[in-house]
Amino acid sequence: MFKVLTLNQISPLGLERFPKERFVVGPEVKDPDAIMLRSFKMHDMALPAGLKAVGRAGAGVNNIPVAAMSARGIPVFNAPGANANAVKELVVAGLLIAARNLRGAWEFAQGLQGSDAEIGRAVEAGKKAYAGFELPGRTLGVVGLGAIGRMVANVGLLLGMKVVGFDPELTVEGAWQLSAEVRKAASIEELLRQVDFVSFHVPLVDATRHMINAERLRLLRPSATILNFAREGIVDDGAVLAALDAGHLHGYLCDFPTNQLKNHPKVLALPHLGASTQEAEDNCAVMVADELRDFLEHGNIRYSVNFPDVVVAREGVCRLSVANANVPNMVGQISTAMAQAGLNIHNLVNKSRGDVAYTLVDLDSPLPDAVYKQIASIPGVMSVRRITA
Q1: Residue-range domains of the chain with CATH
Q2: Burial per residue of 270-300, b for 16 or more beta-carbon CB atoms within 10 angstroms, e otherwise
Q3: What angle do CA 39, 42, 47 make, to 5 degrees?
Q4: Beta carbons of 320 and 371 less than 8 angstroms apart
Q5: Rounded Cα distance, 140 and 225, in Å
């Protein structure tokens, strides 16, 4: 039986992906093989000794100590694209709110007093202050062209907007899913100089922290609006507020309210609603549950943030998975240990990602304990699993 500890409430549709005859799943599980979570912060958590995998039912993994997991040979899975439609729809809402001054207009209407006739007269007298503009012909900049960014870019075109994107790590597969009408900027500076709106869809890492700062804000048109439904910290809030107060920026919409932001008249700060739809929660939970199950049962890795993708159909009697430092001769040492024991390797796949390498070996006979221990003791090996069932 595999044991999966849940650290947050997980969609039942996801939990149903774990067969009850093979998995014990829940918040009270002890000594788990895997952990499944959403927003729980794991950085100060003591990691269970037998932990083999972590699955985040969402895209970002800032709440997970990924480096510590990698050092122990533990893959961290996530659900890229599973919440993309939910975030895309919130971005569309943000575009419309900003273009039509809906926040100010709503607050104005809420504050009206008097009889209906008096309110009607006040509406006619005051509505000009909230006149907006339409989206067709405006330019939308999209920073980060992953699953969410591509959907935002493509829907921008459907709204009649011009769209320019920037992503130095855009994959060939990602480019295929992006409309050919999306213009590509060579730098974020080039993008900022030409947009009316800019929407961010990048993870929060050292390279993206305060990606929008005082210097880059000066490149934007005073009529421009920033949308950040990605991660807090990508935008320098203090610099944005200074630009808003100076009339150098039209508006700022984000998913991360703070005391600085929440009461500013040109800011709309929402309570982290990007992926807060039932559909997104279901999609993320199902996707990550399937990833964890495939890894625990077969050693396959798909959509890990710290390990390479390795998906191989099971062949042979026994499967061995090895996570190790990406250094020379590791595969040679592993295969030599098996050859010296007279074991025939039916299939072997090795891939690496940065400092981590991962190997799957299918054998035509069981793996003796002595050979298992020998491989586990090789310097640089971080984790070893023997999969037979």
Answers
A1: 1-82+277-307 (3.40.50.720), 84-269 (3.40.50.720), 308-389 (3.30.70.260)
A2: beeebbebeebbbbbbbbbbbbbbebbbbbb
A3: 140
A4: no
A5: 10
The mean predicted confidence, pLDDT, of the chain is 95
Express as a percent the part of the chain with pLDDT over 90: 92
Measuring CA to CA, how many Å separate 317 from each of 119, 142, 365?
A: 79, 49, 5
Alpha-carbon Rg of the chain, whole angstroms? 25
389 confidence band (pLDDT: 50, 70, 90): confident
| CB contact set of 40 (below 8 Å; sequence gap of 6+) | 7, 8, 63
Three-state SS annotation for the chain: CEEEEECCCCCHHHHCCCCCCCEEEECCCCCCCEEEECCCCCCCCCCCCCCCEEEECCCCCCCCCHHHHHHCCCCEECCCCCCHHHHHHHHHHHHHHHHCCHHHHHHHHHCCCCCHHHHHHHHHHHHHHHCCCCCCCCEEEEECCCHHHHHHHHHHHHCCCEEEEECCCCCHHHHHCCCCCCEECCCHHHHHCCCCEEEECCCCCCCCCCCECHHHHCCCCCCCEEEECCCCCCECHHHHHHHHHCCCCCEEEECCCCCCCCCCCCEEECCCCCCCCHHHHHHHHHHHHHHHHHHHHHCCECCECCCCCECCCCCCCEEEEEEEECCCCHHHHHHHHHHHCCCCEEEEEEEEECCEEEEEEEECCCCCHHHHHHHHCCCCEEEEEEECC
What is residue 205's predicted lDDT score, i.e. its pLDDT? Answer: 86
The tokens for 99 are: 């273009």
Round to whole Å and give the CA distance between 376 and 389. Answer: 20
Query: pLDDT digit string (tens) for 306-364?
Result: 999 999 999 889 999 999 999 999 999 999 999 999 999 999 999 999 999 999 999 99
**N- to C-terminal Cα separation, the chain:** 11
In the block, residue with structure tokens 């939990």: 15
pLDDT greater than 90 at residue 176: no
